[in-house]
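ok so I'm stuck.
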Amino acid sequence: MDLISEDKISAMTSLEKLRFVLDGVKAGNIVILEGGLTSEEQMKLIELTMSEVNDDFPGIEIGGYPTRKGFLNLKRKTRLTVIGPANMMRTIRKDRDLISAIVSAI
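replied:
not stuck anymore, here's the structure
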């Protein structure tokens, strides 16, 4: 499990973040991002993941705490994002302040 600080992620470009996350998940890690990803970054991560799905990489499971309403809701991002291999992680419950997931070894 990789716990990534918001300071580390904020120093990266959007594409660097997505590649960093996807490489970690493809290596079999569950990646937890403090500060999370914007909704645009989450969509791009899903697009990037879909292009790399094969027999060895089944895709990702993603969950996050939603942001609080901000000024004009510009560039909203989650407060925390949890991303893991689809064959290892399954979100069973998610609400405003709690994410419950089942994690199993392959």
